[in-house]
Amino acid sequence: MGKALIIGAGGVASVVAHKCCQVPDVFEEICIASRTLSKCEAIKDKIDGGKTKVTVAQVDADKTEEVIELINSFKPEIVINVALPYQDLTIMDACLATGVHYLDTANYEPPETAKFEYKWQWEYKQKFEEAGLTALLGSGFDPGVTGVFTAYAQKHHFDEINYIDIVDANGGDHGYPFATNFNPEINIREITANGRYWENGEWIETPPLSEKREYNLDQIGPKNIYLLYHEELESLAVNIKGLKRIRFWMTFSDNYLNHLKVLENVGMTSIEPINYEGKEIIPLQFLKEILPDPASLGPRTKGKTNIGCIIQGTKDGKPKTYYVYNICDHQECYREVGSQAISYTTGVPAMIGAMLIMKGQWKRPGVYNVEEFDPDPFMDALNKYGLPWQENFSPTLID
Ligand code: NDP
Fold first, then answer.
1. What class is the 3-137 domain?
2. What is the pLDDT of residues 358-374, one digit of tens each?
3. CA of 106 relative to ligand 1 center, distance in Å
4. Does ligand 1 come within 6 angstroms of the Cβ of 346?
């Protein structure tokens, strides 16, 4: 059917590339392009492309001109941006300049501030509409599948959704004293920021990791979950009518939090540049260099993830609860595509979003979050491509 350009060559990109090759009638050719060519080549070497042709390229996606040049030579239908959030706008600009659809898994971040806001990308709506192009934002797991789960609940199970609790649990163990499951810089920026949730039209801030509950998760068991701000809260608060409250919870072990506290206390998680022997460095970026590469955790990580949405609302005038979630096994992911479940649960939905745009099912000019499209083909594809979901109609609620 066509070609896809994958930008980035990290843990997520590797899964996207593997998964695209499982759907050769849609992805006839893929190009894996990133700043470090050797990483693209390493992914290509791991993949048995089958019928899908796989090529690689070097690109610095901070430079719009370089992305334009690459798109013009490769001529894809879509760019799947799984580099870092800092490159979202330069890549969107390049897509507009060349007439190519766009997809990402994380919202744009200005390098100097940790904001987690869709504002900059939503401002591109008119430009994509006028160009007749689709930009699909946040097509990973969270954001991504959590939005699709919510849209599915809205379509099939509720007249009105009032409360959503998204719970992201990782019961995996990689055996290192401390490592992050995806890009450490983005991960630590997210966790050390204030918590925030949306209630009755207002954002309520909480000190970092101050709201804690215990929750018993299917196939994982009881875990401590902590309230965090997460970017899908912003779009779901806008797109789900009748919503009264939405919160996001993530599991962290005591060991992880102790390490993080020490790193924070000594200033290693700061994004303020410091001068070290005449060179400006950002402590958090330096820390990223010395922590294990998330892409290397695959062979070591054992256990499961469980991510889903606990939803309360009404159907036919009666109160209703609904929990929809996916369980993913780290070792099974590794056996299939050579990556752990965090990369897998992000890369599979990125491939699915791109597939639905290429097939025309989710093609609509403008800039959209996943919950704005028909969830059904996405939910079917989750079952088919490795992320089957489960339902529970009487879940334990979070107070
Ligand atoms: P990694 O750090 O493993 O990989 C990022 C890749 O992007 C690297 O190959 C890196 O290249 C490349 N890159 C960075 N800067 C540039 C640039 N200027 N030009 C070209 N390539 C560049 O990250 P992950 O694979 O773990 O994560 C990828 C994305 O997925 C991130 O945006 C992350 O926030 C998002 N994500 C989303 C989730 C979701 O559920 N929605 C969950 C997990 C992640 P180099 O190696 O040269 O530095």
1. alpha beta
2. 999 999 999 999 999 99
3. 9
4. yes
